[in-house]
Amino acid sequence: MSLSDFLGFLHSQLRVTLPEPITRFTNQTIIVTGANSGIGLAAARQLVSLDAGRVILAVRSLERGEAAVRDIAASTGRAGVAEAWELDLARYASVEAFARRVIAELPRVDVLLANAGLYHFAFERAEDDETTITVNVVSHMLLALLLLPRMRETAARHRAGRPAMTQFPERRSPNIFADLADEGKARMQERYFVSKLIQLLTAREFASELTKSTKPGQVITSVINPGFVATDIMRHAGLAFQIYQAVLRRITARTPEEGGWTLVHAAEGAEETHGQYLDDCKVGKPSAFVLSPEGEATQKQLWRELLDKLEKIHPGIAQNI
Ligand SMILES: NC(=O)c1ccc[n+]([C@@H]2O[C@H](COP(=O)([O-])OP(=O)(O)OC[C@H]3O[C@@H](n4cnc5c(N)ncnc54)[C@H](OP(=O)(O)O)[C@@H]3O)[C@@H](O)[C@H]2O)c1
Q1: Structural domain count of the chain
Q2: C-alpha 209 to ligand 1 mean position (Å)
Q3: Hey, whose CA ends up nearest to atom 10 of ligand 1?
Q4: Rounded to whole angstroms, how far apart are CA atoms 178 and 90?
Q5: Which are the contacts of 315, defined by CB distance < 8 A and separation ≥ 6?
Q6: Does the N terminus or the C terminus of the chain have fewer Cβ atoms within 10 A?
Q7: What residues make up the domain containing 68?
Q8: CATH number of the domain enclosing 72
Q9: For residue 34, how far is its CA from the centre of ligand 1 (angstroms)?
């Protein structure tokens, strides 16, 4: 990170006061992945307080999910709004089963907050890829495309019309995902930031594909930077890094509640947030790389590779766009 990036980070963490969300989500059905802890749990609680009709906590442990449901009901006084549903983003079959359940049981899906995430320093595989890439990137886009038709229907019925933390050298590979799945070449210290950059690039391309589509129902998509938030996300990182982060956290981190505000802000989904990178609850500026011609070419390559991958997992899925 350059000095000016670091000063920008400190400014954002220490000087910016985030706006507490007030928009109400009356009657809306919202899915929050990884909602049993951290920012996802805080956002789910806020959505229940803001009058959402149903909030689905998509969690890999139903026990932790049910504990979150009870906690949300007790703290908001609104029982029966949050529900825990099983979703393990490390397994495509679980993503597909979750999506089937959504289509069968949720007549509307207003918002998908693809919040779950992993921060690992050890190389482990899940399905075809390294686990951070499977969970943070591939499975979330698989889920988004599987739910897109239901979200479009919902929109048609109910809606009136800078990650600069990695050099991402793997972008030069003719097959980026294959390169990232090669343990011998893996640079796990940067893997999390690579996964987040890929999320941003593929979400931008996804947004432009959605804009071009003539199907009815407008679905808005954006990528959120919640800032540095005091949660346990780094529990699988190396020990030295965890100590460094613990010190930085004491001085600069936002609370999970403030992190939740950034998700809830994105859930409001205005026209001007479509395809955007949201920083401090505003449309932010992605890094120079993302906006460069090379960034654009990488974005298109990643999108092609990801769509090929998703077609193999779930043939015909591209038709949903
Ligand atoms: N904290 C920060 O400073 C910060 C900064 C920028 C971005 N973010 C992003 O914010 C999001 C939430 O992170 P957090 O800080 O709130 O950390 P967290 O408390 O560790 O939350 C991560 C959530 O993801 C879930 N998850 C992990 N693997 C999963 C899988 N295979 N299937 C389903 N769910 C899975 C976890 O479930 P388990 O409890 O079962 O493990 C947990 O509920 C992440 O995407 C993270 O990258 C965080």
Answers
A1: 1
A2: 27
A3: 115
A4: 17
A5: none
A6: N
A7: 3-320
A8: 3.40.50.720
A9: 6
